[in-house]
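REVIEWER CHECKLIST
Item 1: Sequence provided? yes
Item 2: Single chain? yes
Item 3: Sequence as submitted:
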Amino acid sequence: MSDFEFDPDKDSDVILEDEEDVEIKKPSMYRVLIHNDPYTPREFVVLVLQSVFHKSEEEGKKIMLVAHTKGLATVGIYTHEVAKTNIFLVEKMADEFGCPLRCTMEEVEI
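Item 4: Structure as written out by the authors:
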């Protein structure tokens, strides 16, 4: 058995002492952008938007068409970890499918 014993009455005082000094900040947010390319099929882009970003088929088609006509489109705004994970999943799917689909992220001022 460990020598450490938790005493909620005693140990909670330590947390409360520092409570005034704690500044709670909202996490930084990042815009995920999907880029158009001449090789990735439109249907695959919609599939990626549905499976990775949980977009409906209609939302996926709209985002894909914006990327197709303007060169890139915003997929959504996420925390850093979620944005990085989703970009990784897109790149993995694109690599497995054999296409150069690309997503990037940029910090958003909130």
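Item 5: Key structural point noted by reviewer: The CA atoms of residues 21 and 98 lie 52 Å apart.
Item 6: Recommendation: ____
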